[in-house]
Amino acid sequence: MSSPRELGLKESPGEVILSTLNPDSSPHAATVGAWLKGEEVEMRLFHPSTSLSNLRRVGEGVLNLTDDVNLLVRLALKNLLPPPKLEFLPSSTVRVPRVKGMRGEEVEDELGTSLAFRITCEVRKVEAVDPHVKPLLRSEFFLLEAAVLASRILVARKRGLKVGRMMEELRRQVEGCLRLSPSSREAETARELLEAVEKRMSA
Ligand SMILES: Cc1cc2nc3c(=O)[nH]c(=O)nc-3n(C[C@H](O)[C@H](O)[C@H](O)COP(=O)(O)O)c2cc1C
């Protein structure tokens, strides 16, 4: 494998583990979203964070792909849950991606304004330890949840139950999918699914 696309990264965020080097040379790891931007890989790192300051200081890091959702969650929420025990191996065969450029931008959501930095990484080396591992894509989870809701809505309708709240939730899940990955196959399916359910409900 020679490209991050072959490893399963796409244009919408895939959850990966970014490892960087602390000032004392110990490794640091954090769960972040990463996506393809042409031949390069992009991330958006919040400020302040250890990952961002390590990347700014050292100029390189490693994106580690995993499909272990427990690991990603425990690593991200180490202030809340017992953290996973990570083992670090030297990147002797892997020349780490070098950070090429970054600029700060304000990110607005319902939590207010945060400062984040868009990081563009030049990919130096891609290595597949297990070629079957594909990164988890948030858009896929939205689509799956939407599908579960759609099937429940159909059952509820058949049983003469109210579906208003479930329809709202379905729209939220579909919107989430479209927001994260507007031109993907997941988005196409999510759009089609919502249209089909709405049509059925108005029949
Ligand atoms: C699913 C998930 C995705 C995340 N994605 C990002 C991200 O894209 N960028 C980011 O800066 N932090 C992200 N975080 C938060 C980081 O994992 C981390 O907790 C925080 O940024 C602190 O990083 P640090 O350990 O480098 O200080 C994410 C957390 C979760 C649970």
Structural write-up:
This protein has five helices and seven strands, in the order E-E-E-H-E-H-E-E-E-H-H-H. The chain is 36% helix and 27% strand. A hairpin with a 2-residue loop joins strand 5 and strand 6. It has 203 residues and is α+β, with helices and mostly antiparallel strands. The chain folds into two domains: 121 residues, Electron Transport, Fmn-binding Protein, Chain A (Pnp Oxidase, Chain A); 65 residues. The longest helix has 21 residues. The structure holds flavin mononucleotide.
Category from helices, strands and their pairing: alpha+beta
Report the CATH superfamily of the largest domain: Electron Transport, Fmn-binding Protein, Chain A
Q: What form results from the Cα inertia axes?
A: elongated
Please report the total strand number as a whole number.
Answer: 7
Please name the CATH architecture of the largest domain. Answer: Roll
Gyration radius, in Å: 20 Å
Helix percentage range: 25-40%
Care to give the gist of this entry?
With 203 residues, the protein is an alpha+beta fold. The protein folds into two domains: 14-134, Roll (Pnp Oxidase, Chain A), CATH 2.30.110; 138-202. The chain has five helices and seven strands, in the order βββαβαβββααα.
Furnish the topology, listing elements before pairings.
Elements: E1 14-21, E2 27-37, E3 40-47, H1 50-58, E4 62-64, H2 69-76, E5 98-109, E6 112-122, E7 136-137, H3 138-158, H4 164-180, H5 185-202
Antiparallel strand pairs: 1-2, 1-4, 1-7, 2-3, 3-6, 5-6
Helix pairs in contact: 3-4, 3-5, 4-5
Features:
alpha+beta; 2 domains; seven-stranded antiparallel sheet; 203 residues; Pnp Oxidase, Chain A
